[in-house]
Amino acid sequence: MSYIENFAPEDFKVPGFKASGIACGIKKTGKKDLALIISEAPAQAAGLFTTNKVKAAPVLIGQYRIKKGTSRGVIVNSGNANACTGKQGYKAAEKMTILAEKALGFSKGSMLVSSTGVIGVPLPVERVEEGMQKLVEGLSVDGLNDATEAIMTTDAFPKRALVKGKVGGKTVTIAGMAKGAGMICPNMATMLAYFLTDANIKSATLKKAFKQAIDLSFNSIIVDNDTSTNDTALIFANGVSGGTEIKNNTADFKAFTKLLTEASVKLAKMIVKDGEGATRLIELDIRGAKSVNDARKAARTIAESMLVKTAFFGGDPNWGRIMGALGRAGISLDESKVDISFNGVPVVKKGLDTGKEAQAATAIKVKEIKVIVNLRSGSSEATIWTTDLSYEYVKINSAYRT
Amino acid sequence: MSYIENFAPEDFKVPGFKASGIACGIKKTGKKDLALIISEAPAQAAGLFTTNKVKAAPVLIGQYRIKKGTSRGVIVNSGNANACTGKQGYKAAEKMTILAEKALGFSKGSMLVSSTGVIGVPLPVERVEEGMQKLVEGLSVDGLNDATEAIMTTDAFPKRALVKGKVGGKTVTIAGMAKGAGMICPNMATMLAYFLTDANIKSATLKKAFKQAIDLSFNSIIVDNDTSTNDTALIFANGVSGGTEIKNNTADFKAFTKLLTEASVKLAKMIVKDGEGATRLIELDIRGAKSVNDARKAARTIAESMLVKTAFFGGDPNWGRIMGALGRAGISLDESKVDISFNGVPVVKKGLDTGKEAQAATAIKVKEIKVIVNLRSGSSEATIWTTDLSYEYVKINSAYRT
User: Fold this and answer.
1) Predicted pLDDT at A399
2) Is A250 a catalytic residue?
3) Among partner residues B224, B311, B325, which is closest to A186 by beta-carbon distance?
């Protein structure tokens, strides 16, 4: 048991959690824009937030509240990011949590909050207030599907993942949902992800596992190079599985982290595939680096190169642009050792052209391209997923906000 | 006297220098592809080269030879970058200098060399050999125009600048030429710039002035974010003006550096304007930064944001994307102090929307956009010039190399 492909909507649930998703009128389209996810009992919780210094109000609240390590859940609106909105914005975010806590009879400070949407526009928190009763009444164990829909902005499809596995002597379930299409309608580049699990694990250990999983998934995708003011990933663990506690650095910890990583990698890759304007999913495998840091730097620099991304859009196996990116990545590099292959076709051996460009051009005329770069300078590795850069990207992102 | 607008081709010369430019057959189009610039007497010389760790063979030779501080000139080919070409490439670059030195009767090691064009393809140095006699015979004091043409790759127009000013008691001339269109046909993103002057200045002082000028010009433009394997800027000073020697930290030094900066800023802005696919020239003025380093980091992060660049292409005064870029720039930042204006229209005051978006949208529907960001955290400043990101950029850079 592990990742479950094509699960039925009715299987997308975790014992002890309820959720709901409704339209409260923040989105002009009338689509769902308010989500609620709660744990029936106080849950262990961990969170990771944007590194952008300009942080939206809900991020500031979340960073503070997550410190105590327990939470009852999260309320999320889409359609408005509540970022660059000053003190008024902070009050609006706080009010969202107070409204939910009161309606649910939860203690003050027990709820978290997220927002995603347009920047710099005051959040109409009265819509949240008006919708609260309906939102709470809608709570059900099957509500995660509605909640997933309600956090979407320009996502072409809802992003859900489900994994199950034996941990601590019991079958543990992890459900994950995410939103984000990377290169997005103006101001909506935010990535949000929520994970629910019935595993028995304390918040400090949970945070460690979560950090590892997020680094290998959401922190390993690059669509454009911008970091949102609102990026948030939260995990809640309620212990309902009844397994023994997952302690740090045990086999159970490894098993749990593996399951969690599997779910988050699946979600992260869905975000890349949904990158608006993306025509190809590109996996960059850096091998033989002197350090993991070098491997990640190399992968990021290639993934962020507009010249590399446009070449892939055009189906051009332009390895010169990859060599150029490696050279400015700030890593330990010996050009004469580098090997590069595109979908299995070696295009560079020891820094020189192999003459197989025509073969490589054919091999990359597909939806998924795997680039392997072997630096032959060490034994560290990293993988990053990215997209190409298309006309559609420019079209979507240059459209005036309406 | 200083920068000379719209000078006649016959005025583009500096006493004591000769140049030539011919077609030797490296470019398949039959256009000029081989340039020679020489000083009639040994000149003081300084050079600045790409920071990319993958350096083309001519860059390696230049970095070594420039150390002695004197040179007789440079031979340049376009159409082939001679990068990622291994030992064979190094020999080819060296041979270019040997051929020129022999034909001119110059001592070994006195000539520099540059290449620009496709990466990873062996340089057909025999074409240079065949063309050498014609190249040398073509040398003339009026030859800088031909040389400027011969270093072009996908440049839409030749880039030339001429400044004159009183330094050391005499009128000093500086002529500058450059190639580069920033976002370029596959593998031709290289920037080359050569400056000739009759100023009387020693190489160490010359290098200092040159570094200052290049930092404020070629190092202050961003078209895409890639650094070429071949970027090279060289300056030659022959002292023919007869002025007194320009010593470090004197009024003459300042006057000379100012003239040189003026010429190089003009050339750098020409490169941005010629950015293929660029529809707008964007000047980013960062003010009130805690340090110059912060100001430059802020400007670079904004200039490198694909979201910012596409918004400008669309004429969208999307200040949220600029705030987002500032937040991840790694600078000292207090969001609640930031002011932003677009072509004089304030769109953000103290971190909040001013409600003047419609006015700003009208103000930026022009070819040149000036963005002023005041961080109000200090007194340091920086200016960076960049372009928007258009369909044409994607088109040009995704086209398969032919």
Assistant:
1) 72
2) no
3) B311
Residue B391, min C-alpha distance to chain A (Å)? 5
Rounded distance, CA B300 to CA B326, Å? 10
Cβ atoms of A182 and A224 within 8 Å: the answer is: yes
A305 with B400: Cβ contact below 8 A: no
Task: Quote the pLDDT of residue B6.
Answer: 85
Token reading at A286? 């850096």
Query: What SS3 state is found at A99?
Result: helix
Q: In chain A, which residue's Cα lies nearest the Cα of B81?
A: A320
So what's the pLDDT on residue B401? Answer: 56
C-alpha–C-alpha distance, residues B243 and B139, integer Å: 26
**Under an 8 A CB cutoff, do A84 and B335 touch?**
yes
pLDDT at B402: 44
Looking up tokens 């332009």 gives A318
Confidence (pLDDT) at B1:
60
Catalytic (active-site) positions of B: 190
Output phi, psi for B384, to 5 deg: -130, 140
Q: Give chain A's residues under pLDDT 70.
A: 1, 182-189, 223-227, 276, 400-402
Contact A136, A18 (CB under 8 A): no
pLDDT mean by block of 10 residues, chain B; 402 residues: 85 97 96 98 95 91 97 97 94 98 98 92 96 98 97 92 95 96 52 96 98 91 74 96 96 97 94 84 96 94 88 91 91 96 97 94 94 97 91 77 50
Residues of B in contact with A358 (CB under 8 A): none
* Mutation choice for A interface testing from B323, B331, B396 by most A CBs within 10 A: B323
Q: Going along A119-211, which residue ranges are E strands?
A: 159-167, 170-179, 192-197
List domains and CATH numbers for chain B.
9-273 (3.60.70.12), 281-398 (3.10.20.340)
Ordered strands of the B345-349 beta sheet:
B221-222, B380-387, B281-289, B368-374, B339-342, B345-349, B352-353
**Residue from A52, A55, A84 to probe the interface with B (highest B Cβ count within 10 Å):** A84
- B198 token code pair: 């009759």
SS3 state at B272: helix
pLDDT at B162: 97
| Short-list A286, A294, A385, A373, CA closest to A338 | A373
Find how far residue B318's CA is from the centre of its chain: 29
- pLDDT, position B395: 83
Report the run of H or E that residue B266 belongs to, with start and end.
Answer: helix B251-273
- Find the DSSP H helices in A1-150: 57-65, 86-104, 125-137, 144-150
Q: What pairs with residue B40 in β-bridges? A: none
**Can you say how many angstroms the Cα of residue B20 is from the centroid of all Cα atoms in its chain?**
21
The Cα A45–Cα A50 span in angstroms is 17
| pLDDT for the residue B226 | 63
Question: From CA A114, how far away is CA A177, in angstroms rounded?
Answer: 14
Report CB contact under 8 Å: B398, A187. Answer: no
Phi, psi at residue A371, to the nearest 5°?
-105, 125
pLDDT tens for A202-231 read: 999 999 999 999 999 988 887 665 667 888
CB B327 within 8 Å of CB A229: yes
Q: Which residue has the tokens 């380093």?
A: B293
Q: Are strands A345-349 and A339-342 parallel, antiparallel or unpaired?
A: antiparallel
pTM for the model: 0.83
ipTM of the complex: 0.79
Q: Are A88 and A57 in contact (CB under 8 A)?
A: no
Residue of B nearest to A400 (CA): B316
> Which of A354, A17, A27 lies closest to A185 in space, CA to CA?
A27
Q: What is the pLDDT of residue A182?
A: 59
CB contact under 8 A, B119 and A51: no
Name chain A contacts of B348, Cβ cutoff 8 Å.
84
